């Protein structure tokens, strides 16, 4: 092809057709420019296609991570609900000076359960490494960032702080006042009458009610946000 164009140029020069030669040269330059632009367009299209595929992969991974998070939150929500019920039962026993019954032992255990929130951040780390602009939908991108950087961070910080206090109580107060401790079974007090008169324990029971109620609100907010992100992800994948 190049030899063909060169032959035409030489022929025009030989025939002393300068005007036609100039027009031909300009036309040849235009063709070269058009070829370059087409090549760049194809390359850009390929890059955009790769980026679209990368976004699809990370969105599918994000959806799976969020479903795992929601399952973890549901389990923790159930445990916190049980802790509230048990705390209220023990509080009622204390306030009304009710006698000990072995059915209370499971409630003694449920009160001090503080489950950790174990979120999955694989997809979010991949999004950050690739650049958050990988997510083209502005609303979806903002909600993902808010969920992981604000809501999840606060929930984990809040729960981990309570866990540290619980470990202190477990190594101190609980080991003294309970002859047996079982997180998911029964815990038996050394001296029930003494325990229900202990102001430190009374405060702990009341604290657990307010702590669990506040924590539940955050779990519900995070779960709702995660579900909303999944809905937006599904819309993006459908498109």
Protein architecture, described:
The chain is mainly α and 239 residues long. The protein has one domain. Helices cover 80% and strands 2% of the residues. The protein has 7 helices and 2 strands. The protein has a two-stranded antiparallel ribbon. β1 and β2 form a beta hairpin. The longest helix is centred in the first third of the chain and has 78 residues. The chain is rod-shaped, with a radius of gyration of 34 Å. The two termini are 43 Å apart.
Percent of residues in beta strands: under 5%
Please list the strands of the largest sheet in the order they lie side by side: 1-2
Rg over CA atoms, rounded to whole Å, is 34 Å
Task: Kindly state the percentage of residues in helix.
Answer: over 70%
- Domain count: 1
Overall pLDDT metric:
83
Total number of helices: 7
Give a brief rundown of this model:
It is built from 7 helices and 2 strands; from the N terminus they run αααααββαα.
């Amino acid at each position: 092809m190049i030899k063909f164009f060169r032959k035409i140029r030489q022929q025009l020069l030989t025939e002393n057709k300068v005007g036609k030669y100039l027009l031909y040269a300009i036309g040849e330059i235009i063709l070269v420019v058009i070829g370059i632009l087409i090549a760049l367009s194809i390359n850009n299209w390929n890059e955009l296609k790769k980026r679209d595929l990368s976004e699809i992969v990370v969105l599918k991974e994000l959806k799976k991570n969020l479903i795992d998070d929601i399952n973890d939150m549901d389990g923790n929500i159930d445990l916190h609900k049980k802790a509230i019920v048990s705390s209220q039962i023990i509080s009622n026993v204390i306030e009304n000076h009710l006698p000990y019954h072995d059915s209370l032992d499971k409630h003694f255990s449920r009160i001090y359960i503080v489950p950790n929130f174990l979120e999955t951040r694989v997809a979010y780390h991949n999004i950050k490494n690739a650049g958050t602009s990988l997510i083209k939908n502005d609303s979806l991108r903002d909600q993902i960032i808010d969920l992981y950087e604000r809501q999840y961070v606060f929930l984990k910080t809040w729960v981990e702080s309570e866990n540290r206090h619980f470990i202190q109580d477990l190594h101190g107060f609980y080991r003294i006042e309970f002859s047996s401790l079982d997180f998911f079974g029964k815990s038996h007090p050394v001296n029930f009458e003494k325990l229900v008169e202990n102001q430190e324990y009374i405060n702990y029971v009341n604290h657990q009610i307010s702590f669990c109620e506040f924590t539940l609100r955050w779990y519900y907010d995070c779960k709702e946000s995660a579900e909303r992100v999944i809905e937006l992800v599904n819309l993006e994948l459908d498109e």
